[in-house]
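Field reference: "sequence" (input) and "structure" (output). Example, Checkpoint protein:
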Amino acid sequence: MKFKAFLTENGVNLLEKRFLAAFDKMGKTCYLFLTKHHLFFLHNLLNGDGVQCIAQFRIDVLFDDYRISSQNEDRIAFSLDVSLLYRAVKSSVSICTEFSGGLASNRLQIKLVKKLPSNCTQPMPFLTFETKGYKSAVIQDVPISKPLSRSQVVELQTALDSAQDLPPTLVQVQDPNQLLNFVDRMKHVGDVLNVTISKHGDLQVQTSTTLIRLGSEFQRLSVIGDKSQAPAEDRNLSAQARSERAIARGDAQSVQVSVKHFLKSLQCHLTKPDSAFYGIAPQGACLTVIFQFMVPGTRQTDKSISLHCRLPVLDPGSN
């Protein structure tokens, strides 16, 4: 089992300044899943209790001289502490820059190794970052779990495949920060968020207590997938009345999610997405948030990077 590569300058920027900052906010640990063509960060994928977060990168976006081999179809997966990985990358970049005044002439190597730590009798696996200067080298080791077995990798791949299913209707929010600021205020009102998404391009978020109801509506959003025109007679109705009628017609779905989970998913704004799509899975199985990244300077979607979250829904009878 071998993995070795050099981080590109773009790869360093993506990890250090964007994606690791977001995953560090999501939770303590995640899986790193390496294949011949992609790298995945998988948070909470095998646990249905919290927010699942999946980031996927095409290998050439992150690495040069990428080499991987294993007896499991050249797939390697392991878990690690995100904060330790984030710290190691930031520190390595700082040292690399200090050594050479820039990254162009002094690349950062990353590889999978086994070492015998002090006070241990068995070698342990590490993800190692190596920065070579003119007369010295700096090595930083990030401890990782024992790489997953063949059956565990199959389980992880199966969970990943099922998590890629798209909701039938997705609505686009151009500025995710608008939702972040609003839901951040909602957390002082209640713990449960009602989210309604319609085929007409409406997104409603609402929380309430016995004394107060607080909500916001985004109308006429771009729709991907199943869409329909809102009846003319609904235009003068309140947001709640319109959503109730749309649900009754089968033109909308509504779910309840934890405010805390919703806020956690919005930490993904640290990855600097250009927009976000919201959708509800069939039978209200989960709330899905897909973040869109554009090729810089264009209006084309960057298909080399993807990021999405799945939020578990609450049982309405439990509130």
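DSSP finds seven helices and 18 strands in the chain.
The first strand starts at residue 2 and ends at 7.
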